Amino acid sequence: MKSRNFGPRLRRGVSWRTLLIGSASTTPRDQDKKLHNRFSRRALLIGAGQVGLFGLLTWRLRELQIQDSSEYRLLSDENRLSFQLVAPMRGTIYDRFGAEIAKDQENLRVIVVPVFCKNLATTLDAISTVAPVSSADRDRVLRAARRQNHYFPILVSEGLSWREFGLLNVLAPQLPGVQTDRASYRHYTEPRSVAHVVGYVGMAGKGEIDQDKVMRIPGFRIGKTGIEKGLDPELRGKPGSIQYEVDAHGRIVRKLGSTPSEPGRDVVLTLGRDMQAFALDRLAGYRRASLVALDVATGGVLIMVSNPSFDTNELAFKADPKIWTDLVKGSDEPLNNRAAAGLYPPGSTFKVVTALAGLTAGVIKPEEHIVCKGTYPFGGHIFHCWKPSGHGPIALHDAIKKSCDCYFYETVHRLGIDKLAVTGRALGLGQIYDCGLAGLKQGIMPDTAWKRATLDQPWYPGETISCGIGQGYVSATPLQLAVVVARIASGKSIVPSFLCSHANETQVPPAALSLDPGYLQMVRDGMSGVVNEEGGTATRSALKIPGVLMAGKTGTAQSFGKGATRQPTGWEAQPHSLFIAFAPVGAPRYAICCVVEHGGYGAQAAAPVVHDVMTELLQRDPASKPVFVADRQPGPAPAMADAGNAQ
Amino acid sequence: MSMLFAEPSERPQLQLNKKLLLLNWPFVVLIVAIAIVGVASLYSVAGGSLEPWATRHILRLWIGLALIFAIVLVDLEIWMRVAYPFYFIVLFLLLLVPLIGVESGGAQRWLGFGEYSFQPSEIMKIALVLAIARYYQWLPPEKVWRPDAVLPPVLMIGVPTILALGQPDLGTAALFAIVGCGLLFLAGVSWFYFIGGVMGVIVVLPHVWEKLHDYQKERVLTLIDPDRDPLGSGYHILQSKIAIGSGGLTGKGFMHGTQAQLNFLPEKHTDFIFTMFAEEMGFIGAASLLALYLLVLLFITYMALRCRSTFPRLVAAGMGLCVFTYVFINVAMVTGLVPVVGVPLPLVSYGGTSMLTMMAGLGFVLNAYVNRATRIRREEYGPLW
Predict the structure, then answer these.
(1) A496: closest CA among A276, A232, A298?
(2) What is the DSSP string of A573-631?
(3) CA-nearest residue of chain A to B281?
(4) Contacts of residue B242 in chain A, CB cutoff 8 Å?
(5) What is the DSSP string of A228-275?
(6) Nearest-CB residue to A54 (from B186, B245, B290)
(7) Quick one: how far is CA A178 from the chain centroid?
(8) Which of A35, A318, A386, A486 is the most buried (most CB within 10 A)?
(9) Interchain proximity A61–B278, CB inside 8 Å
């Protein structure tokens, strides 16, 4: 019933629609024809719609393939091209005679790509038959293969011999997934003797990563200390690259091209490798000691050693964390370069500075005798001479020779601290030399302004007295003391340097010191007396080479262990033993400073070492021999040139 | 048999040679040309090798051509008689899929018989077209507008669509819906039903959405927008766009498509074969292939328009809609216009069921064209048989 009522109502609606289309025919034949026409209309409509939608697809293709094609082409290349950076060879470091100190050596390695191996364990067994794989390495490889993407290559072992490498190359085609590879590692020829100066290389720490794309090479090593760090930009070189086509899994399909890497520049040091070894060997009997030898004419550092030393090869390649912690925690701080960063009171070696300052200021005359009673009362405090009975009336020459304390107490009392400081700085104390070596210490050449600035206290006259004999606030590094000797010996304002000047480089001769040459000669005579005249403090260390004399000055520095509040006992109770020297007396060529921590008085430990090293130096006479010129030696580095001009 | 036809002149008894003469031969050549593009593409995809895809594609082309001729040569009347039984058998198979189907790639679409397997949903496309055409051949023209006459074909479309959604196979569901609705439209169903249907969906959908559980919503959203899973098809569609775009105007050259040859493309021998073709042949090649497809569609429309009776007319037009929907969704999918739904490119993509279904569909188009002059009297056929 309901549907019947429903029908007609709708029919009215439809007839209304039929009117709209414009056909009112009702016979089946007409209906059929009408539907046929409607089909044709609608089929054409749909056909037109299909053409339109195909137009949309074509428009989309035009957009992708013509409009944005270059962008997609880049993306496609990014997909398929893989650039592998090739580490550059690091520049070689030579000593002044051309002996290799640090050089990149070929590192023959064997690598596996786990995904291509049928069975990783048996593959490792097969490698072991040619090149033994330690069980630790084996565990490491298996662990890495489990943990990371199977397409990542894993290093099995490195530092293979040529024989092993050759055999593995023959074997590799039968062992899918095994590859051989030639990389490089840093090798130090005399690692211990040059450890502190040359330094070592290591993986860049977080703070050391710079913009250089070479940093993206896995396992790339940069200079961490010493010359390796100071000259890292020159030594590093520029990376090359190999362009590969890779598939979606990162597998290399073929090699497309390559640009070679550019090796770093070579560096020729002023050091002598064998002399370094000799000096370190000579210091080996003492727990903590250091020695610096300079070329008096150029300031070139011939020897710089610090004992105890360490093996840089152990840190630069396949570093064992245990060795590292041992070095850092070692009681004698083997990583510390005492020669450049060890601060000591100069003790009596400083008297040459006080003497020069007194002469320059005119407060003492060379012939003037000052009476030494063994004690020097000043400001309610009694200062002692090392010789309790006193030296009696004593003039400059003997005062240096016999190292009379009272003479220099009086000199510095007359002089005042500020005038002492001026001369001290002119001789090279209290400053850092810009010589390319990282980690130099400034030391202290005190004056009233310094005390005001650092301690915010006025200068008390009593403090001046102990400064006159290199105690009190005065502190200096062995390198600085060597510079003092070299400047006194040469009369030139020489600055230490580590790089041999390039053959093409015109050398700027160091400027003359602003001190009277006559006074310098008097001090030199006094220093000669110390070694060569009856009554000198270091006569036992006189050279045994006929016709060649050494001049020097002993120093015995009171020092208590760092921050020690307790009374030191045993070894630590001994004073530091210092000795500075130059030779030959008439025409100085070499200057040396040696400091032996807790070695006793100056003539006891340091002077004999200096004697031996000076004898060695004079016999080898490195300054008279031409320096080595490397093939890829850099031109004058800006820092070096500045250092030369600044003084 | 002749007693079935009241007016023999309108139902000429066609001889075999006559049928072959009436066949649209340029159309057959066009189909073979597109299939050969597929063979070449599959040869390139395999890295310049006939194995493993190109040879089988050639074999399927031969089987497909045989199928076309078989379908053309079988009398139209037989196809009319089997339309409904065929539909219900396929529907039954489709119902079986969730019960005993083989699961592959997260969707249950295949039925296995021994070592062979096929997708009932592919065959359903043909069965659906035949069944709806058969319905409107029977339905008196004056009843076409009536709601109770619209309901049966809507059910015929709706049931397989919902089954396909449940597999889940959004591409096939969309295809059923588009082809089915297109056929209703061509059959003369009023605009108002379509407008009303769209409006009804718009009104009802938010309410249904509200009632869904969160995990159900998530499942539907992932179905519609696979980019929600950025490591899955988001990566694929980006690589596909890179491949097509980097082809440029002239392409990278046959067998030199880096994206395809270096395996950056997913499914490069099936759903993404157009991408590879566009990369290697460039805009010129891709647009030419689209032009070939458009030519096929225009041919089909022309053939449908030439038919005098409702059944062949709707069969031809329905198969045309099917081809169009396949091509459009596939190309729109690989160019990033629509979500990745897994629809092959007809005659080019590798795949047995889809290739043979497409050939069968085109066979029905040709069958309709051969019988273009036939005037079928609706009184000869019952509602079901």
Answers:
(1) A298
(2) GSPEEEEEEEE-SSS--EEEEEEETT--STTTTHHHHHHHHHHHHHHH-GGGSPPP--T
(3) A65
(4) 72, 75-76, 79
(5) HHHTHHHHH-B-EEEEEEE-TT--EEEEEEEE--BPPPPEEBS--HHH
(6) B290
(7) 36
(8) A486
(9) yes
What is the C-alpha separation between B127 and A372, in angstroms, rounded? 128
Q: Which residues of A369-396 are buried (b: 16+ CB within 10 A; e: fewer)?
A: ebebebebebeeeebebbeeebbeebbb
A79–B242 C-beta distance less than 8 A: yes
Question: Nearest C-alpha of chain A: how many angstroms from B42?
Answer: 19
CB nearest A28 (choices: B141, B245, B290): B141
β-bridge mates for residue A378, sequence order = A381
DSSP letters for B205-246: HHHHHHHS-HHHHHHHHHHH-GGGSIIIIIHHHHHHHHHHHH
Whether the CA torsion A71, A72, A77, A83 is positive or negative: it is positive
CB A139: neighbour CB atoms within 10 A? Answer: 10
* DSSP assignment letter at A458: P
The SS3 call for residue A291 is strand
Contacts of A102 (CB under 8 A, 6+ apart): A92, A93, A186, A187, A188, A189, A194, A198, A228, A312
User: Is the alpha carbon torsion for A332, A336, A337, A341 positive or negative?
Assistant: negative
A38 to chain B: closest CA residue: B188
Whole-number Å distance between alpha carbons of A538 and A579: 9
Element (H, E) at B197: helix B191-211
Among A26, A46, A68, select the one facing B245 at the smallest CB separation: A68
The CA distance from A169 to B225, in Å, is 52
At A452-470, the pLDDT tens digits run 999 899 998 888 999 999 9
Rounded to an integer, what distance in angstroms lies between the CA atom of residue A210 and that of residue A97? 34
Longest dimension (CA), chain B: 64
CB atoms within 10 A of CB A565: 6
Cα(B364)–Cα(B68) distance, integer angstroms: 8
Contact state of B247 with A69 under an 8 Å Cβ cutoff: yes
Do A61 and B185 count as a contact with CB atoms less than 8 A apart?
no
Q: Is the pLDDT of residue A253 over 80?
A: no
pLDDT in tens, A354-376: 999 999 999 999 999 999 998 99
Q: How far apart are CA A120 and CA B109, in angstroms?
A: 39
What is the CB neighbour count within 10 angstroms for residue A421?
Answer: 23
Q: What is the value of pTM for the model shown?
A: 0.64
Per-residue pLDDT tens over the stretch B114-170: 566 778 888 999 999 999 999 999 888 888 888 888 899 999 999 999 888 777 777
ipTM metric: 0.91
pLDDT tens string A96-120: 888 999 988 888 888 888 877 888 8
Give bridge partners of residue A202 from the DSSP assignment.
A222
Q: Do B192 and A50 touch (CB under 8 A)?
A: no
Structure-token pair, residue A314: 């152990």
Out of B246, B328, B331, name the one closest to residue A69 (CB).
B246
Q: How far is A42 from chain B (nearest CA, A)?
A: 6
> Which residues in chain B have their CB less than 8 angstroms from residue A79's CB?
239, 242, 258-259, 262, 264
Count of pairs with CB atoms under 8 A, one residue in A, one in B: 144
Residues A583/A538, Cβ–Cβ less than 8 Å: no
In this structure, the strands spanning A289-295 and A301-307 are: antiparallel
Tokens (6 digits) for B273: 């074969």
Element (H, E) at A183: strand A178-188
Q: What one-letter code names the amino acid at A11?
A: R
CA-based nearest distance A47→chain B, Å: 7
Determine whether the interchain pair A54/B293 forms a contact, defined as Cβ–Cβ distance below 8 Å. yes
- Greatest pairwise CA separation for chain A in angstroms: 154
- In this structure, what token pair is assigned to residue A179? 């590859």
